[in-house]
Amino acid sequence: MEERTELETIGEFGLIERLNPKREIRNESTILGIGDDAAALKYNGKVILVSTDAMVEGVHFDMVYTPLKHLGYKACVINFSDIYAMNGTPKQITITISASNRFSVEALEELYAGINLACEKYNVDIVGGDTCSSTSGLFISITVIGEVDEDKIVKRSGAKPNDLLCVTGDLGGAYAGLLVLEREKVTFKANPNFQPDFSTYEYILERQLKPEAQKEMIEWFKENDVLPTSMIDISDGLASETLHLCKSSDVGCELYIEKLPLDYETTRTLEEFKIMPDVGALNGGEDYELLFTVDQKDFEKIKTNENIKVIGYITDNSQGSNLITPQNTTIELRAQGWNHYRKEE
Amino acid sequence: MEERTELETIGEFGLIERLNPKREIRNESTILGIGDDAAALKYNGKVILVSTDAMVEGVHFDMVYTPLKHLGYKACVINFSDIYAMNGTPKQITITISASNRFSVEALEELYAGINLACEKYNVDIVGGDTCSSTSGLFISITVIGEVDEDKIVKRSGAKPNDLLCVTGDLGGAYAGLLVLEREKVTFKANPNFQPDFSTYEYILERQLKPEAQKEMIEWFKENDVLPTSMIDISDGLASETLHLCKSSDVGCELYIEKLPLDYETTRTLEEFKIMPDVGALNGGEDYELLFTVDQKDFEKIKTNENIKVIGYITDNSQGSNLITPQNTTIELRAQGWNHYRKEE
């Protein structure tokens, strides 16, 4: 009998590893392949960044509470985020949309209104796409192309011991927003006349439904002549991304729980759901903030930017990746992360 | 009440036009946007071509008779074809796969075996991707990046009156193959023990299940210093593509039915299905041959290549696009083409 391994048993990263063993590179223009936020191609001395991210109905979003315009916006932003995570600037996208006939032309126009809005805000051109039908559901795949100077590419692999571990913005908000939306969905199913009051959840709902990518941070790095030693965007949760970064850089880290940046609304909501805010900040996905490391010499510059928080530092690989509690005890850092195949969401 | 336009009423091209009105170009690097086989971007004087094509289960393929390895191969080839249609060379791809848990890890490995085989044959690097679950079915979207010298880009829009209209290979084979597969599927459903005999349909089944893109033709153009004035790949059928090319170039054409290149097996099979071979050659999709125009001065070179057939010539726009029958009567050329939203397949 043929072997059959279920997708859910190996997870997304396991699958990527199985489908993408080490490959020979065939073209000179391919300078960085699979394994970072974006691939890097070099044409006539110029580096082009390329990344692809998809959103699937029932997996990444629920049409019950996702406005199509927001969905189009988010589908773009999560792709732009991958280019920023390489210290690049997104320039062009191509879009593939597959929609069942449950969706009307007007619905797709609404989706495109969000895509257009994101492209306007982030100064990106839509240069191609493919729109086709599906037998069920809505599928959006976007490929983004960006640019970066070759000596300014920031990979996941450049962190070195004693570098500072930094994060932008605040964490756990998108996850808190998702919890609220899922709760109201259940209430709505029980009583379709129910009108949820979202007024005290505005920030976290926006974090979930209409996130932003860190354009200003990349511009600030340039203006202030700061070049992170490594960087990754936070889509799967801080814990998971920190481990990715440490693994790629072959280093360890100490991450201080009390330094985790948490917004008040996020904290209040997570507590409402009996989730420890730190746990939400470490494992909640979809914040699209940047996690990066800088050399200690850049500390004076970094501390002038209110949007950056130093949450720890890089250590030698032999020391492992650890969380430091407020009581100064050490816990091994583990990733819960998102595994769509295990349907944890 | 809100307006609701069904997707099936406006077709793929109607939808593309509605979702992509004329847009301002925001980045200098965007030199050619939506509307050709690929977009063209210019970075440091080098032109990069980008194109995206998706394949959706139940729309573009049927798992009953599509081996996963062939599917992976075809998903790549249809993308490479778009780059060749701009006179370029494909160099890198990114892949998005969304699969329900009906598919095992081994099934996706089989799909990737086909993708790897195509990339090896066409000398292309896989530089990124996104693999996620779906609630039903299999979805594959590939974005291809290629290169071309700026003065060698061939668009759809360059045909001029008196140019020769040429086509590579032969036509209608992929459509004939699809007819055979659909027939055997019906027989198989009625009697699951039935083993179809495909031995007399080998060529057309390969045309449908494992098509090739026209790499050699682009190399021949270069070696022989031939630069087509316009070009498009034949994915939606010759009639449809000819009209696209004429519309983009603002010209008309005369296309001789008796010049249509037809393979013997294709002709025999179409007749078996009571379809006039000419009609199959004009409207059958998925041949992935190239349709192009050349200046008459290139005729001496063109005629030395057995793989190229001159099927007509370009006229002034005012004369329209016409078919010339063997009896020398003129019929207006119309596109049947593929409209996935109308479920013609």
How are the elements arranged and paired?
The structure is a homodimer of 345-residue chains.
Chain A: H1 7-19, E1 30-32, E2 39-43, E3 46-56, H2 68-84, E4 89-99, H3 105-121, E5 125-133, E6 138-148, E7 164-168, H4 173-190, H5 202-209, H6 215-223, E8 230-233, H7 238-249, E9 251-256, H8 264-272, H9 277-283, E10 290-294, H10 299-302, E11 308-316, E12 321-324, E13 330-332
Parallel strand pairs in A: 4-5, 9-12
Antiparallel strand pairs in A: 1-2, 2-3, 3-6, 4-6, 7-10, 7-11, 8-10, 9-11, 12-13
Helix pairs in contact in A: 2-3, 4-5, 4-8
Q: In summary, what is this structure?
A:
Two copies of one chain form a homodimer. The first copy, chain A, has 345 residues and is an alpha+beta fold.
Overview of this protein structure:
Two copies of one chain form a homodimer. Chain A is an alpha+beta fold and 345 residues long. Chain A has two domains: 7-152, 2-Layer Sandwich (60s Ribosomal Protein L30, Chain: A); 156-342, Phosphoribosyl-aminoimidazole Synthetase, Chain A, domain 2. Helix content of chain A is 33%, strand content 25%. Chain A has helices spanning 7-19, 68-84, 105-121, 173-190, 202-209, 215-223, 238-249, 264-272, 277-283, 299-302, and strands spanning 30-32, 39-43, 46-56, 89-99, 125-133, 138-148, 164-168, 230-233, 251-256, 290-294, 308-316, 321-324, 330-332. In chain A, the strands form two sheets. Chain A has a seven-stranded mixed β-sheet, with helices on both faces. In chain A, strands 1-2-3-6-4-5 form a six-stranded mixed β-sheet, covered by helices on one side. In chain A, helix 4 (173-190) packs across helix 8 (264-272). Chain A is globular. Residues 338-345 of chain A have low confidence and may be disordered.
